[in-house]
Amino acid sequence: MEISSPMTISVKVMHRPEPESTSYLRAALSGMALTFKHMVNPTKVTQQYPEEQTDLHPRWRGTHVMERHADGRPKCVACGLCPTVCPANCIRLVGGEDDQGNRYPIVYEIDEFRCIFCGMCQEVCPVEAIHVGRHFENAEYTRERFVYDLDRLMDQDHPSTLLWDPSDPQSE
Amino acid sequence: MDLQPISGVPALIAITAKNLLIFGGVLIVVAYATLAERRVSAFIQDRRGPNRVGPFGLFQPLADGLKNILKEETLPATASRFFFVLAPLLVLVPSLVTFAVIPIAAPLPTPWGVVDMIIADVPIGILYVLAFSSLAVYGVVLGGWASNNKYAFLGGLRASAQMVSYEVALGLSIIAVLMMTGNVTLAEMVWQQQQLGMWFAFPLSLAFILFVVSAFAETNRLPFDMPEAESELVTGYHTEYSAMKFSAFMISEFGHMVTASALMATLFLGGWDLPGTWDNAFWYQGQLIGGFAQDGSVILAQPTWWKTLLTLGGFAAKTGFFLLLYIWIRWTLPRFRYDQVMALGWKVMLPTALAYIMLVGGTILVLDELGVAWGFGYGLALTAVSGVATFAFIFFIDRGRTITGAAAGAAQKREIKTIPQVSSRPAIAEHAAVGD
Questions:
Q1: Selection from B350, B331, B347, B328 nearest residue B339 by Cα
Q2: Nearest of B55, B22, B27, B57 to residue B39 by alpha carbon
């Protein structure tokens, strides 16, 4: 009698002993034995955080990264889509145009305090310039430091978020 | 070597040094007991516990103390200020001064005389301990009452009722020890255990169990922490306290634990005694003796500094064992209900202690009438009698389930075997297949 579905819900049935048939002493002693086993057990669940870093999920959305060209210029073309789509209104963009008619950002600032890390800026970007990143340790001593300017966004060296799995196009 | 008790100016110096060292040592042990509690609880729960301040978190108590000194002292607007401030002191002092009468090691010989490793070898010994441990309840009740907070008040009331109840069982379980030693000084209790050749935990096993349980209730530790039952009373009598005053309550709780552990070690595990007769020492008619020869003449003790150190280590190990037991039990057993605590105290512990006093007294009488010498055989006879009593006690309070207690487990195993037959899951799958 095989169960055909691979998604069988497994339920662990716990049999509570009848109150009238329980030996309190034995129950207490077996409890003591259990806690003692855990006490001497060297494997602990605590992650020693600053020394042991957490493995962030590939789709973790954290501190932003601005991608740059090989010559160091930002990839951003100042199209204005990200400040438009941003639900928290945390991106400030002032666009400019150089001699060859290439648009570039004169001012590009992201307020990491306002940001809700939805990742829509990365999704909407036509040139894949702005990314949310797999990074979360962005504590600062002053509030002003949380407004990241263009240079700081370009200097972020953590990996950027994979909003979808490239090997699985349908996931997009 | 002249084995005379130290006297004169050196004695004053020695007493001062002992005061500083022992109370300082107790306070350090108390501080590290708080760390041990947090670490052991963490280990039991598969965590690591505080390990950031210093190596293995060893400076954590210092950090905690510093934090508590720097924190703001709050005073509830409607509290009775005088008693509110007085309560932490009233609860702190008795928990620490009890240690004064507990001998911690074999006497230490110095060029000026022999120094007893006990702060005050008062002749009333255990009575002093009982008196001061009862005093602590005043601080608890005052703290709860003066806070003018209903939870604190309930905690204080519960504490007073519980401590009074279990003090009875505590005192009665000590009486068995007193009958064995014939004296109330703790130094003599250690000596009689050395002479008996076995620690009182065996010949007085039931008294040992009753004393341990009562001591847990006396110190308000789980499973008897009714006065501060967090889920019911916030934290009970010290709900309104902050900063150093709260810290005083915590220090007193752990001080009580350390003192009770030392008492359990002294009364039932031989105190500073280590196996063998090499370390025995006792002041008998002005002489420091190590035992009696066959003809009744005394054998002089030979105290040395390394014996003192070794016995101190033995005492510390025994006390540490009970401290660990305190913590271990706290993080294993659930809290009793209040009426269960009272029922256990008055309906089980008290009658058992009384009956056990009769039993031990009768056995001692019979053994003395038979002319059995105070020694290992005497202890073995009492061990047998107490073993039967202990077994009967456990069997009775466990409603006979201790032996057949596997009933629950056996029933569980039987039911597990039947699970595949009663499980409805395959039937549903079959039904679905038919439906398709």
A1: B347
A2: B57
pLDDT at B134: 81
Take residue B202 and report the two structure tokens written for it. Answer: 């065996």
Higher pLDDT, A70 or B110: A70
Q: Which of B402, B415, B430 sits opposite A26 (nearest CB)?
A: B402
Q: Which of A26, A45, A49 to mutate to test the interface with B (most CBs of B within 10 A)?
A: A26
A-chain CB neighbours of B42 within 8 Å are 46
Partners of A96 in the β-ladder: A104
DSSP for B17-72, please give it: HHHHHHHHHHHHHHHHHHHHHHHHHHHHTT---S--SSGGGTTHHHHHHHHHHHSP
Find out whether B241 and B156 touch, Cβ atoms under 8 Å.
no
Sheet holding B287-292, edge to edge: B282-284, B287-292, B298-300
pLDDT single digits (tens) A120-139: 999 898 888 899 998 888 88
CB contacts, 8 Å: A42 with chain B: none
Kindly report the pTM of this predicted structure: 0.78
Domain edges within chain B: 9-372
What pLDDT shows up at residue A6? 55
Tell how strand A62-66 and strand A91-97 pair up.
unpaired
Residues 6+ apart with CB under 8 A from B46: A38, A41, A43, A44, A45, A46
Substitution target from A8, A35, A36 for chain B, most B beta carbons within 10 A: A35
CA B97 → CA B19, B41, B432, distances in Å? 10, 28, 76
| Chain-centre distance for alpha carbon B304 | 29
Q: Do B45 and A38 touch (CB under 8 A)?
A: yes
The pLDDT of residue A84 is above 90: yes
Chain B residues in contact with A29 by the CB 8 A cut-off are: none
Whether B398 and A24 lie within 8 Å, measured CB to CB: yes
